[in-house]
Design a protein that fits this description.
By secondary structure, this protein is of the alpha+beta class. It has helices at about 55-60, 65-70, 85-95, 110-125, 125-140, 150-155, 160-175, 225-240, 250-255, 290-310, and strands at about 15-20, 25-30, 40-45, 50-55, 80. Strands 2-1-4-3-5 form a five-stranded mixed beta sheet.
Length: about 300
């Protein structure tokens, strides 16, 4: 899997302050000079809710969702009561990264919240964060807790990138677990178990682009996103032998359809002093006229014929 690189480097947040709603104590990310207008985003409910105080222009440039929310010009905080402040904090830390953050996906809170981060990225309409969350989910899917697969089926639409990857993982593992009850029992994706064959591989071998393509709907796609299939296709291409073209007189004769038994779309060869509708009656026994005249006609015909072969 390719390394994860930071996104939106030109749109980094100038200031992010996270406040606890109980005591208003918070931590502020390093900030730089920029427009002073800001907006408050309240995430979560009750005692776990947090308010994120951020630069308005930056967040609107980053997210179509917030751009729409800020159009009204209201000074009231934008409320995301259904979202988890921990997951929302992942979004802002990702947006403010200026170094490779792939190693962070092996740790908490990414380890337990990659799927929820994908759902948040889809909601906020930030495609790059959504893709980053998908890569973290795929990398950690073997370590995920029970119950997360049901969350994905409930929160994500069929045919979406994370749903395709999750369905593949569930069907593949349910097939290996056999008919006995397991953690995947009752999931919709278990119905695809019958499509698993000995050639079906785990979902983690595919490039991330696979889950954004229609081939991600199949358990045995044999597509170019599979490194093994790609290697086989390249090997097959290298084995193709291109025949050498034949040059010279025989090639020209074939091109003009002059060899015996060959058909040609070009008009039949017409020699000088011969009408197209008349057969060639020139032969060694019938030249017509005086011998000198017949020799001149024969030479003229031979010259014309050679000219046609070399033209």
């Amino acid at each position: 899997m390719s390394g994860l690189l930071p996104r939106f480097s030109s749109n980094r947040l100038t200031s992010i302050t996270i406040h606890d709603t109980e005591n208003q104590a918070g931590s502020t990310f390093p900030s730089s000079s920029g427009p002073n207008e800001s907006v408050d985003i309240r995430v979560g409910t009750g005692d776990n809710a947090k308010v994120f105080h951020i630069n308005k222009n930056r967040i609107c440039a980053l997210s179509d969702y917030f751009e729409k929310e800020c159009v009204s010009g209201s000074r009231e905080p934008i409320t995301l009561s259904e979202d988890d402040p921990v997951v929302f904090d992942l979004f802002f830390r990702w947006a403010d990264q200026d170094t490779d953050c792939y190693s962070q996906h092996l740790e908490e809170p990414w380890l337990s919240n990659a799927a929820a981060a994908w759902v948040l990225g889809r909601k906020l309409r930030v495609a790059c964060f959504e893709e980053q969350a998908l890569e973290a989910f795929i990398h950690n899917c073997a370590l995920l807790a029970f119950g997360l697969w049901e969350y994905i089926e409930r929160k994500t639409p069929p045919g979406s990138s994370i749903r395709r990857s999750s369905d593949h993982w569930v069907a593949w593992n349910a097939h290996m677990s056999g008919p006995r009850p397991n953690e995947f029992s009752g999931l919709q994706a278990v119905r695809q178990t019958r499509l698993v064959t000995e050639k079906t591989g785990g979902p983690r071998i595919y490039d991330v682009e696979h889950w954004y393509s229609s081939c991600g709907d199949y358990l045995n796609p044999g597509c170019y996103h599979d490194p093994n299939a790609r290697k086989a296709q390249l090997h097959q291409r290298d084995q193709i032998v291109v025949p050498q073209r034949e040059w010279g007189r025989s090639f020209e004769a074939q091109r003009r359809g002059l060899l015996s038994g060959e058909s040609s779309s070009s008009p039949p060869l017409t020699l000088p002093h011969q009408s197209p509708a008349q057969p060639n009656t020139t032969s060694s026994n019938n030249y017509g006229g005086s011998p000198k005249h017949s020799v001149r006609i024969l030479i003229s015909n031979l010259v014309a014929y050679m000219h046609l072969l070399t033209s």
